[in-house]
Structure formats: structure tokens, C-alpha cells
Amino acid sequence: QVQLVESGGGLVQAGGSLRLSCAASGRAGSTYAMAWFRQAPGKDREFVAAISWSGGNTHYANSVKDRFTISRDNAKNTVYLQMDSLKPEDTAVYYCAADLELTVVTIVTMVSNWGQGTLVTVFS
Fold first, then answer.
1. With the CA atoms of 107, 66, 87 and 108 taken in that order, what torsion angle do they form, in degrees rounded to the nearest 10?
2. How far apart are CA 4 and CA 104, in angstroms?
3. How many whole angstroms separate alpha carbon 117 and alpha carbon 96?
4. CA–CA separation, 47 vs 50, rounded Å?
5. DSSP assignment letter at 32
6. What whole-number distance in Å separates Cα of residue 112 and Cα of residue 98?
7. Which residues contact 28 (CB under 8 A, 6 or more apart)?
8. Are 77 and 24 in contact (CB under 8 A)?
């Protein structure tokens, strides 16, 4: 198991930017792929972005492509989500996820490690 703690959420005006962070601990030496999901009120949790252990492979949901960037710093055991050009429809609780396989970490029903979430609110 790996423990995940998100931070960086907040209130931002449409068009603005936020950077989320997810610090991972536990299972030292494991090579986890990491992902971000989000869940808006009354909606299902949805995939946002994922990154491989090496950082060489990334995947994005179409709704955030070209606006969000996922990255990681393995020396700090931290993954980031840079969110630019934010829209009110990006408002959600954002969750960090980890799994040993990149393909698995993109599927909400298969992820084995979740953070507690951080709220992002975008107002117009």
C-alpha cells in the first residue's frame, strides 16, 4: 500500500491556474504509476491524467488536454497537476491515485490506492 496526500486546491477565477500536488509515502522502492481523477457534485469520478513511473508516458482526458499538465519528481515522491485556463466545469474534488501499472491507474474501478482529495472551485 502507498499513502497519498493531495494539496493545492482552492478557489480560482475562470481563466486562472492552480497546481495540485500529491505526496506519496510507504512501499519505498515500488515503482508506481500515478494519476489524477476528479469528481464533481452529483457526478461519477472521472479520469483526468496519468503518468508512468519514469515520467516518459502521459495520458490525458480530452476535456483537459492542452490545459492540464501532469508531472512528477521521484526524488520527492510527488506528482503534480498544473491546471491552466481553468473553467467552471473543472470544479470538482481532485483525487490522486497510484498503481503499479499505468493502464490500471487510468481506470477508476481498478485503482488500488487513493488520496483523500482536494477541492478545486472555479468561479466565473
1. 0
2. 17
3. 7
4. 8
5. -
6. 7
7. none
8. yes
